[in-house]
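Exam revision sheet. Question 4 asks you to relate a sequence to its structure. Input first:
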Amino acid sequence: MIRYLAISPKSQCWLFHIALALNVLGMVLTDMWLPMVVGAIVTTYLSVDALVRLRYVIPMKKELRELRHELDIARKQVRESYEQQER
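Answer key, structure tokens:
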């Protein structure tokens, strides 16, 4: 998930979707079917991957980070209450 660091995930999604549209347009307008089909398959994979990353993976990572932070706070509170009970 750390690839393509030069551009943002949203820009990647737009780039791959535009590339897919250009591939489909190229398939319609030219006779080079085999290279265009291969290009369309590759750009379809990249488009779906970028969309899934943008819609699901990145928000999930943010939520997991927040949950870990809350868990750390809860563990500290439990540890402090346990230490106070021992005194």
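Marking note for examiners. The mean pLDDT is 90.
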